Amino acid sequence: MPFRSGDVHMQLWYEELVILSPPFYANLKSVLFEEHPTLVADLVAIAPKSTDWLVETMAKIALSNNSAVSWIIEIVRHELEVQAVHDPALVFRGASIATRAVDALMKVTGLSFVDHMIGDIVRDVVNNNYKCEVDPAKLQPGECIEEHWQTLAHLLEALWEGIESGVSCCPLIMRQAFSGIRRAASAFYSEHGAFEQVRYSCISGFVFLRLLCPAMLAPKSFGLVGRHPCASSLRVLTLMAKGIQCTANLTDFALKEPYMQPMNNFVQRCTPKLKRFIDDIANDDVAGSPREGVGVPDSATAKGPPGDKAGLLVIDRERELAALCA
To answer: Which domain of life is it from (predicted)?
Structure first.
């Protein structure tokens, strides 16, 4: 065929999912979120494959069922009792059912919150060629490390200002979940003499380790930018994320990365601000009970938080229930 210009090869995957009307799933929802809210732990234990989809699907169903906060708090209490991690610095740091459930909650409800806090500074870094390399082993000939530190310090201050300004945009459901997690962790660790530290580490692990820092390292995946950052911009974002994560860990740069020790001044200045930030978003006086305004109504759509670019939070509840049953 002399005029043949090319071939198109396609791989198709077909799935048939039987979705029933809402009344058929009433008993299932009652069992999962009211009678046995920690049943997910037993299901994960016997699942033959990866269970990320299971926890994420149940989190979405809980959101649409107005049960997300109470369900997550029960899972957190169960994990604290079963795993009994005695070092408060390590609580909720690994990949567990609780951390994956909160991950799903934050990614469904908190993307506009992330954009409000760090979106502007991330886009600024991606669109400008800042020179911030502070590792002497990676400096190019003629580059001045002192100037790089000044630029990096300026960017870190702008980043932290954005984080502080985002407190008022934290979605109600995230505030309620963080408040409940904090109460559960504080009650458990008060018996182990680590009450003060865990009040902050139990929340910073979610907000910074699992939300803000991943958004900085993969901004396109979180909808902050339209393209992947170049290598130099990604390096700047990585250095900034290191500073923020070190602050969230309530520690400083020790001998592991000696070239980062000049950032300890920033970490020490921001530690009190970090505690105020967590006190604000995990306040016990947050409006509403754990069952008010935390899910998606029967229409399966709800208005997103102020400034939400998408404007709508959409969960197809019956489809998620059908997928879980299948």
So the answer is: Eukaryota
Contact of 281 with 203, CB cutoff 8 Å:
yes
**In sequence order, which residues have a C-beta less than 8 Å from that of residue 276 and are 6 or more positions away?**
none
- Cα–Cα dist 313/326, whole Å: 24
Q: Which of 75-79, 138-142, 163-167 has the lowest mean pLDDT?
A: 138-142
Instruction: Report the first-to-last Cα separation within the chain, whole angstroms.
Output: 47
Residue among 65, 63, 41 at smallest CA distance from 54: 41
Other beta carbons less than 10 A from residue 7's beta carbon: 5
Q: How many CA atoms lie within 13 A of 294 on its CB side?
A: 27
Q: How confident is the model at residue 85 (pLDDT cuts 50, 70, 90)?
A: low
Query: Using an 8 Å Cβ cutoff, are 253 and 174 in contact?
Result: no
Distance CA 304, CA 312 (A): 5
Alpha carbon 83 to its chain's center? 22
